[in-house]
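Checklist before submission:
- one chain only
- standard amino acids only
- sequence pasted in full

Submission:
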Amino acid sequence: MSGPLRLRGAWGRRLVTAVPFLWLAVFFLAPFAIVFAISLSRSRFGVPPYEPLLQDGAFAGRLDNYAFLLDDPLYLTALVNSIRIAATCAAIALAIGYPMALAIARAPGRWRTPLLLAIVLPFWTSFLIRVYAWMGLLKNEGLVNAALQGLGLTDQPLQLLQTGFAVHLGIVYSYLPFMVLPLYATLERQDLSLLEAAADLGARPWRAFLTITLPLSLPGVLAGCLLVFIPAVGEFVIPELLGSSRTIMIGKVLWTEFFNNRDWPLASALAVAMLLLIVAPLAWLEHLRVRRAESAR
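Returned file contents:
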């Protein structure tokens, strides 16, 4: 390769590498820096509803909002509830999504595309409309209670709406495709000759699944759990519409602080704390995964 072509190729590689970093800088780091700066300020009545960080040429930022988060148990309760509900929903989605992904991956080739379309078909309608549909199904006069009474399983309508059960159901239903799709991508790439070899050696199907299929699909399991867990932690619409006032999640508290109380600095501090509490364990898991991969070489 001649000198000008080599130089042009080097600049092309740098440009391609710079695009994702530029995207992260513009759409993640810059908004995060703005939110962090607001979290160091104090709230006030006005536009914007927070004091400037530079006053009389001096930096006026402080950590009072973070200290307040530690003093008030409401925020810790909301965060613990959010993590508990998100983790439970991720586990339920995994229990439902793994057999679905395995069945699609092992289905004949002509059936895989229609089955995958059936998985993503709910995304073609509005998220809010789907949640409202569950409100109609779960209310006392809804189809679920009518079916239960019609089958003689209960005499009176059950309280299904505005309960923790409805919140879990709505989150699992809404984010189940995020669990199925990465699992399918992992399972579909597996070499089936390994299962045939295990069968030839006398392994039963269940043992072959535990020793071959499941370990090889762990990257898909981890990706699916993260794709369900992360958005579920900050979920606001589903707890607001399907849950009750006792269902306190961090997304609902954030909405209240931002739009009802107009306390942008405290809400920003809560958003930053939530992000750090979620990112730190994920970074630790990624560090362990990289170390394990390096030690396996």
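Reviewer check: The beta strands are 54-55, 58-59.
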